[in-house]
């Protein structure tokens, strides 16, 4: 079986692949929760929130793909299976069932704070070890912080 | 909080929402496993399999969305959270790590048989209760069976 | 003058063309009322409702065209003239004049219940006589029920 | 409920909204009759007339939307409901049923003369009161007169 | 050599693959005859008929591909070779040489009656055995019947 | 240095270039204030207002360009520098800082009244002197009045 | 042979068709001379002038078509034959052969003055008789004057 | 003034530029007559002929541009001015005024015979002297002969 | 019935129409066999061969249409009916049923040799009689030879 | 009123928002001056400079939007009002009136030096405090420096 | 290793592959020099020349690809490696460093003469041996001669 | 002759332009070798490798253009002439002639290791001197490393 050579030193490899692994879990879970709320939101702002969540999901899926392929690129297979996400995610759960539009805004506003803090930390952790992964993670931070602004701005 | 009226009788509601709930779990898990293999496949057929898996993922995501919105439409919130998928999925797990191209073909050929049988059963279960959901599930069956043909056809 | 041969038996012809005639009246009237509300809605959700109504109108026009051409196809000329709609429609009237956004949501939520019930009945009526018309009407039902979910979900 | 301020004086308001109201009725009815003939035309020129009528309908719908939104803009809600059209339209009715291609050409050639005369009069009526509405109605006249040329040119 | 597993029972397999095989022959022959007339039509309606025939050919080719791939999907190789079509087609032959526009309309109007009856029968034959193939064949019927209406409508 | 000949008489030149100069200042300032509110709006209607303002800005920029190029065309250089706008604009200032969604709607509803009145006056002023500039300014009026309707319609 | 009814009175007809006939001749000749210079220009600004002339030709052809179809619409056949243009054009001839870029600019700057004056006069002539033709001719004037600005602006 | 070097010998230059000059005149005149008939055709086939003529004009304009630029490329300025066309064209004139659809078909069928013969001769004349121009002229012949087939095919 | 005049002499007509008739048969049969293999190929290179065959079919259909219309253009009706292909084709038959990917490559590599030789001969046969048909057939040769390179290049 | 949480420490907040505020002023003023010159440039290079300035304006507007939204994202409202630009801009003023093409090139070449120096400084100032803003400002620098090269390169 | 059969005789093979090999070297070198000048041109016509060179490069790359694939098609591998180009090119070198716009025009005008002469010779050399390659090379000549006209036309 | 001012200090200038010069050579040579293999690859994976190489070439050409324009931007002319590439490239040569698919994969897998190491070093070298060039080179590294993963992944 072919093996993928890492362009990184062993130390850098450990730091970078750990950061990418954790970032992938956050991003896949964000995409699943975004769809969950997309389907179950109710309330006067239904359409606005419904479509906003699809943009969140599209961005999360795109970044998850970039992060996972970067992981493979630096020599470590990616792990995005349901049981891995369910076991290791750090994002607060949404309850099952219908969810009011204001509660969607509150719930998502709430989860971005931790999400951004973790993602900023990962970007910083890899800065020396791999500036390419650093750039990739900063792009994720930029997008997440912009979304966070928008969620905050539309609280009622 | 607004409630969504079901156009179905109570009996039909029970049959239909159960079928849609299970179909959703199969489809989301297929999309996660498709990406898992997309990232980790290695071997001479890397590119062919890598791109074929993205088509599988795109179709699974599209159908998951249609199925989940049909569930909301007939009055039952959808549940696509990671822990639900991890707990209830009936698809055989992929191991973590790199996976050879021939093994990807074998693994996917293997999982479609059960997947198609379950989906055909669901389509049949809802035929009387809700012909609209029946049509939606038959479209899923048509796509899955076509993919199954292709996976079989390219076994070495 | 050429005559259009019907691929249906006489009994089937009677059942199918009656169902299509009534479906056409419902769909054209829905498109006229959708535009009526599109122009006259006022209130904080003006833009959301204004654009949502255009999607309702676009879908209704598309389905009206398919239904009317199916009617011609099975040998019966279609009738979509204003006086026919005004005389035979079963949809509750909107009053003339400005209409608040919440009232638009309430009015449309209200009219879909009957609309869907009638359309489901028509689909069922033609199931034996003409499976092609059955498929066409089930597509209409699927779209209307999805719109109905959305109208309900955004009630305040 | 919000009220829409008119940028027009009371006198101008009366003249302009009356002209727009009548123009809207003509345009919606033209779109309904265009579809009626689109579905029911028969004869050797079936395809040519069938597609030409869709262009008539598209233009009529586009202009109806512009006219109705101008009406709302100058402070008067628009009225495009089926019973309003049926009651107030000045266009000669088409009979129900199949209609030969030559008869479609004759019928439409016949109805444009009055339609254009009325629309020209409305454009002139509002010229002093509201040059913006005047421009909108002149665009309608330009399109209708061009269609009228084409209907005349293809008489057999 | 890989074998393609059929998702159908043996009885269903026999019914379904026979229906698909015959549908494929009809559709390929329709596409060949459509081109034949496309090239050889003469008369005042040359352009109208010339382009209409290309639409017939495009639809027939698209449906032939869907039908043949469904056949492979349910485990039976497709057969669309010239000698198979020539030997087994049930569509009346066109003579070689130029053909007047009215004669094209008459010839095609004539051949759709049998074509539609056979295709409707096939759809019915597979309804119990395989609802997916049933849907595919009903889509073919819908398209053919619509074309048949148009051919009839333009007879002189 | 080339000089641009004016197609206008001296009297017409004075009236027309003055009207175009003032229209340009209004339009550029509208585009700057639209962006200001686009960035700083907060509240439950954040997304709706945020995107609506971008449409206002796009239209204002497009019309500013047309007006300025018309000014050059009739022989007078355009002046759209920041200090000119700051010194000569007649639109009420927005305060710096965050601004609630309802306040955005109120502020913009408020500023259109004067804006439209001035623009209508300019269109009237140039009507005799230059019908081309008259047409250009009437297009601006049509757009502004339509936006004004929408702002009014969505007041809460 | 069908006759095209004019929506104009006899007096208006005479004024309008004469203006349109002369406008057509100017526009076709402009398109021919634009191509002539497009092919034969030489000098350091070759590419800039070469492409600018194609824009002149495209606009002239588009307006010629609108003017000629308006002529047919108001009941008078259009005349755009080579001998008519050659006999009646009022635009100064270009000599045959290569032409330097500066000379192209000078020649075209020179011919627009008369062209615009004649076109403005025609627009004014038809203002009372037919406001639709007036609008069409003002659009031509707007385009020609903008081109004239650009030709002037780039004189060396 | 720059001079354009010819890649041809003097003898070849004479033969080639003469052929291109004459081809250009034929093609420009064809485009003018095509528009003439496009505007003035009347009769039941109005729309069919009206659009067909636009295709003739588009092809003629495209080929005229290629031919004229080839002339410049081989060192000879092109001449497409109205008086040159009027003086040197060999195509039979159309009378002014309305022209019936059948007469358009007859007139155009009539003029292609000479047009094609001349164009074939030119292609042959330049075959030895410049194979590039030969290819360009054969493309013109191919297009003209295809149009000629279509005009003939639709004679009534 | 209209007759299509040939721009060719009688001798040329005979040579050219015979070459085009035979080329058409080869091209239609290639398109049918390409689809046959597209549907029935199995093996590890399934996807690569499956899509490559669609490109072969698209090119063959496009060239068949050009060749057949050229035949009509030079005065001879085209014949592309199934029985004509089955009777006159010179391409070796494919057996019915599944076909391994390597065998597809071998079979197609095998059939191009004769196909190209025949097509080159036809191009040569018509070179004097009709350079336009010669160009058309050389384009076919160029495409076929390029495909032949690719089939050969991917033999294992 | 919702408040936007800053993901930055207080010290970082002060540094970053100041840099973004100043960058915004530079970019908006560049867009206004770019349009100013776009409208008023004269001289032989009119078209080249006219279009180049539109690219400058498009880039400046795009970057202004990104910078302002980043400012909101990190918790500080943006300020892009005309009086703020007029008061705080550091870019040298353009005089009103026509401006020769060479002078445009000289003026813009002159203003980029300071503009780039300030923007580089800001990027450096925020490097520690916020790598995301650092990336955004470096993108601005890259674009401005590329434009600066082009302005220099085309000096005469 | 598969071998690519040549459809050519041995003598033809030698002539054709030699011509294609040399044409490929000219075309790749033209694309490299085009980019070289694209990057380093300075002077008032910077933008015009900068973009014109990209068109030269795009055409050269496209033709290089066609020529190289034709070489493979007729059985000879292509050679486009840097050292081959550097060793065998016949195009005069450009010096390193900045190059004035007038000098770019002069340098490129200068190199086309030889380039065209060589390419014309190659087209002629292969005419008997392979008319397909002849057509390919004549297309290259047509494009190069057109570019040569344009370079000459814009000399100052 | 205009000179391009560098925004860099002299020391930074030396470091940055050297890095960009070497990066340009690597990228142009990669694009030439990519095409070389694109044309000459043979073997069962011909199509897969053939198209993958075109993606490599497209990316290399795009990055070469960005790198070369950055060099000009910071004041140093770029050098991408064939002899420069041939003399200074550090990439291992490919032999002339056909090359098997597995050998292409091996050869390209082999050359990326050095390519990536050199490009990473250059990115690091310029980090202090010019963060903009650093970003550009990191984008190149990201792309190259992703391609390297893919080449490795498909080794047999």
Automatic annotation (TrEMBL), chains A, B, C, D, E, F, G, H, I, J, K, L:
It holds the Pfam family Ferritin. GO terms for molecular function: ferric iron binding. Coiled coil: none annotated. Residues 18-153 form the Ferritin/DPS domain. InterPro entries: DPS_DNA-bd, Ferritin-like, Ferritin-like_SF, Ferritin_DPS_dom. PANTHER family: DNA PROTECTION DURING STARVATION PROTEIN 1 (PTHR42932:SF2), GENERAL STRESS PROTEIN 20U (PTHR42932). Belongs to the Dps family. This is DNA starvation/stationary phase protection protein. It comes from Jiangella asiatica.
């Amino acid at each position: 079986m072919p093996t993928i050579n890492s362009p990184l030193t062993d130390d850098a490899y450990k730091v970078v692949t750990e950061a990418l692994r954790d970032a992938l879990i956050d991003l896949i879970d964000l995409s699943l929760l975004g769809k969950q709320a997309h389907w179950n939101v109710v309330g006067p702002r239904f359409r606005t929130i419904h479509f906003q969540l699809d943009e969140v999901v599209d961005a999360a899926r795109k970044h998850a793909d970039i992060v996972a392929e970067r992981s493979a690129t630096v020599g470590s297979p990616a792990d995005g299976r349901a049981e891995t996400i369910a076991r290791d995610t750090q994002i607060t759960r949404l309850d099952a069932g219908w969810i009011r539009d204001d509660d969607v805004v509150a719930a998502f506003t709430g989860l971005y704070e931790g999400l951004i803090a973790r993602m900023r930390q990962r970007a910083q952790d890899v800065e020396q070890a791999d500036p390419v992964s650093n750039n990739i993670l900063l792009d994720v931070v930029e997008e997440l912080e912009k979304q966070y602004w928008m969620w905050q701005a539309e609280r009622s």
